[in-house]
Amino acid sequence: MQILCPWCGERPDFEFRSAGEALERPACPDDLDDRAWADYLYARDNRPGLVRELWWHGAGCRQWLRVDRDTVTHEILRVTEGSD
Fold first, then answer.
1. What is the pLDDT of residue 53?
2. At CA 17, angle to CA 26 and CA 39, rounded to 5?
3. For residue 15, which of 32, 29, 30, 2 has the smallest C-alpha distance?
4. What parts of the chain have a pLDDT lower than 70?
5. 1-to-8, 14, 58 alpha-carbon distances in Å
6. Which of 8, 42, 54, 68 could crosslink 19 through cysteines, CB 3.0-4.6 Å?
7. What is the C-alpha separation between 43 and 40, in angstroms, rounded?
């Protein structure tokens, strides 16, 4: 699998590390109870199909990327900068 890094260009996937699904951060974290925090930190849909993931280019520019990827075909549809 090849990933198009916005800084380094197309690179092989072994240069990157996946950090899993990219999640929306809670708008009001102080309002979350322990159960809600556990769900945010650990519960994942793990569904087949299109997923937005975070990848770190550790063997290259060391930047975080948002990758929209089909988990069934491994097709990468879009790569954008950043982790937020």
1. 94
2. 25
3. 2
4. 83-84
5. 16, 9, 16
6. 54
7. 6
